[in-house]
UniProtKB/TrEMBL annotation, chain A:
Domain Tryptophan synthase beta chain-like PALP as annotated: residue spans: 52-374
Protein family (similarity comment): Belongs to the TrpB family.
GO MF terms held by the record: tryptophan synthase activity
Source superkingdom: Bacteria
Keywords in alphabetical order: Amino-acid biosynthesis, Aromatic amino acid biosynthesis, Lyase, Pyridoxal phosphate, Tryptophan biosynthesis
Gene: trpB
Cofactor(s) needed for function: pyridoxal 5'-phosphate
Catalytic activity: (1S,2R)-1-C-(indol-3-yl)glycerol 3-phosphate + L-serine = D-glyceraldehyde 3-phosphate + L-tryptophan + H2O
The protein's name: Tryptophan synthase beta chain
Assembly, per entry: Tetramer of two alpha and two beta chains.
Pathway(s) this gene product operates in, as recorded in its UniProt entry: Amino-acid biosynthesis; L-tryptophan biosynthesis; L-tryptophan from chorismate: step 5/5
Length: 402, 271
């Protein structure tokens, strides 16, 4: 058994050329997490820049559609740059400076992680290159503009399927070439050790805050904690503090796309373990081991593998993983908009869809904590098309959401 | 010669006895199609390649530059499968050279390391090069390759520390692959001093032959490397020769011409 394993999952399946950089990073982050100066600096940035602690919001009008269970949202959407991604990015950017590196690179799908990285790079005076699949640059043109405004270079990747997984391939190619002065600021809990563990630790604050906040509001722990799972960083962030609370169900919601008979990203419902981007985890692949392209209406969940610790939590039975289809996620998206005046990210809408199902199961005595990982401004183009809101459309499918 | 004993170690020893470096050529199976790729590999052997690397096309080739990426995408689009690699190793073996499969790890993992090792040995393959598998993660493969008597080639890089060099070379069997520049596969105008430094540092910790790859595209560069490396590995330049426009026959001629030039190079660099 090597370092950085979660049971059989994780590891370091990367070219030898990257091993010294991974070892350097591992040393640096372990030292930093013991260094009061680093922790104080991170804490100050979170309070004065990120906007932490993020609040919780109880949503009774939404919960009325979920069998009457109490539903409480952890509002990561209110963070600077609009999602949980900034928690990890600020911390890794500080580490980059601590290691004496001057340049960061990142991959991005929807653009949330890319925007957060460009933001931190601007704040700390680091050079920044963001790799993004060509298809995604077209779907998320405004986020490309945001990153460029912040001073980052955005590279559209045209190889392979021209989406997130190909952006990661290209970022890894850059990293292996420029590793002496460049840090690869991975945006989720996957990749080679120590990334899954490190990124989880940088997001752990979500669960630490939420646990206290829910206790204060309700006087007890929630029955379930629900989060969407693409790579799985927001889910690991909110789950981790609750792992030892045995009475609390941890529920990850994957992207069911068109349903299991169509294109989807429901790895746990369909896949077997394999290696992609440096980690052993559940992986959508064909008989030969070639990666199969995933699909989701939400670019942030559109990834054929998943963070290795989720695979471990799943196989060990500590967490359950379900999926919500595109239709179900869009319905939950509209419902939260209409009942609570909160526009969630499409990613987070999958968690909301999962909470609707779970609430009906738990009944009126249940308490569900949902990680609202991001805001939906970036998704207005998709929503406008889906609900026919452009050219005077009436948004008919929102009719049930009053 | 006894067919069953032809491993890369034998060939590298023979080259050393001739006072020259070995020429090791890479091509992906399935490009331009399976048949054409196998003809090209055999043509390389006939024109002076000593050891062939049979690349298995993979959907996420993160160590490869644009030329090889393009070729493997075409191979996959053409329906190339992992088992096509076995046809290639058999044909190369029959042509008189050892064949090493070069594969990203997930393809082997999916088939099962034990099963793959047995099938590769049965298909006359000499062993496996694993660009994204480090010895630390290779317990299963080390056991399977030992059982089948297969060569096991791991990579070292300019960034490798002395501790890593020891760890990696201890796990190798056949030769050590020195990836001489930090970065992806592709031709370079100069192979630079980093290669020599890496070979020297590697030889300081192992008696195994050290072969150098990443960047060589012509006979003169091969001659330069052959002064200190036991083998010169060429990939992208061969793929480029096979990527040209026009009839396959003409492209095979270009491939033979390049092989001849490189084979001259590894002999001119004689130590």
């Amino acid at each position: 058994m090597t370092a950085g394993r979660f049971g059989a999952f994780g590891g370091r399946y990367v070219p030898e050329a990257l091993i010294p950089a991974l070892e350097e990073l591992d040393r640096a982050r372990l030292e930093a997490m013991q260094d009061p100066t680093f922790l104080a600096e991170l804490d100050t940035l979170h309070r004065t820049y990120t906007g932490r602690p993020s609040i919780i919001t109880e949503v009774p009008r939404f919960a009325a559609h979920a069998g009457g269970a109490r539903i409480i949202l952890k509002r990561e959407d209110l963070n600077h740059t609009g999602s949980h991604k900034i928690n990890n990015v600020i911390a890794q950017a500080l580490l980059t400076k601590r290691m004496g590196k001057t340049r960061v690179i990142a991959e991005t799908g929807a653009g949330q992680h890319g925007v957060a990285t460009a933001t931190a790079a601007a704040l700390m005076g680091l050079d920044c290159v963001v790799y993004m699949g060509k298809v995604d640059t077209e779907r998320q043109a405004l986020n490309v503009a945001r990153m460029r405004m912040l001073g980052a270079e955005v590279v559209a990747v045209e190889h392979g399927s021209a989406t997130l997984k190909d952006a990661i391939n290209e970022a890894l190619r850059d990293w292996v070439t420029n590793v002496d002065h460049t840090h690869y600021l991975i945006g989720t809990v996957t990749g080679p050790h120590p990334f899954p563990e490190m990124v989880r630790d940088f997001h752990r604050i979500i669960g630490v805050e939420a646990r206290e906040q829910v206790l204060e509001l309700t006087g007890r722990l929630p029955d379930a904690v629900v989060a969407c799972v693409g790579g799985g960083s927001n889910a690991m962030g909110i789950f981790h503090r609750f792992i030892e609370d045995e009475g609390v169900r941890l529920v990850g919601v994957e992207a069911g796309g068109e349903g299991l008979d169509g294109r989807h990203a429901a790895r746990f419902a369909s896949a077997v373990p394999g290696v992609l981007h440096g980690a052993m985890s559940y992986l959508m692949q064909d008989e030969d081991g070639q990666t199969v392209e995933s699909h989701s209406v939400s670019a942030g969940l559109d990834y054929p593998s998943v963070g290795p610790e989720h695979s471990f939590l799943r196989d060990s039975g500590r967490a359950d993983y379900v999926f919500a289809t595109d239709d179900e996620a869009m319905e939950a998206f509209a419902l939260l908009c209409r009942t609570e005046g909160i526009i969630p990210a499409l990613e987070s809408s999958h968690a909301l869809a999962g909470a609707l199902v779970l609430g009906r199961e738990l009944g009126p005595d249940g308490i569900i904590l949902v990680n609202l990982s991001g805001r939906g401004d970036k998704d207005m183009h998709t929503a406008a098309e889906w609900f026919n809101l452009v050219d005077g459309g009436k948004g008919e499918s929102g009719g049930s959401c009053g | 010669m006894a067919e069953s004993s032809l491993g890369v170690g034998d060939v590298l020893a023979r080259c050393r006895a001739e006072g020259r470096a070995a020429l090791i050529g890479y091509l992906p199976v399935g490009f331009p199609d399976v048949e054409g790729s196998i003809r090209a590999m055999v043509a390389m052997v006939e024109s002076g390649v000593d050891i062939v690397e049979v690349g298995l096309p993979y959907s996420d080739p993160l160590m490869d530059g644009p030329v090889i990426q393009h070729a493997v995408e075409a191979a996959l689009a053409g329906g190339t499968h992992v088992i096509d690699g076995f046809r290639a190793t058999r044909a190369i073996r029959d042509a008189g050279a050892p064949a090493l499969v070069m594969s990203y790890w997930n393809l082997i993992l999916r088939r099962g390391a034990d099963r793959y090792a047995a099938e590769l040995a049965a298909a006359g393959g000499a062993g496996l090069i694993t660009p994204d598998l480090i010895p630390d993660e290779a317990e299963e493969w080390i056991a399977a390759s030992e059982r089948e008597g297969l060569d096991r080639v791991f990579l070292v890089a300019p960034s490798s520390t002395p501790e890593r060099l020891s760890r990696v070379t201890d796990a190798c069997r056949g030769f050590v692959y020195a990836a001489s520049t930090m970065g992806v596969t592709g031709e370079r105008t100069s192979v630079g001093s980093a290669a020599r430094d890496l070979v020297d540092r590697t030889k300081a910790v192992t008696d195994l032959p050290v072969c150098v790859g990443l960047g060589v595209s012509n006979g003169d560069q091969a001659a330069e490397l052959a002064q200190y490396a036991d083998g010169v590995i060429v990939g992208t330049a061969f793929v480029r020769a096979l990527s040209g426009e026009g009839e396959l026959e003409a492209r095979l001629d270009a491939l033979r011409e390049l092989t001849t030039d490189l084979a001259r190079g590894v002999r001119e660099g004689a130590r």
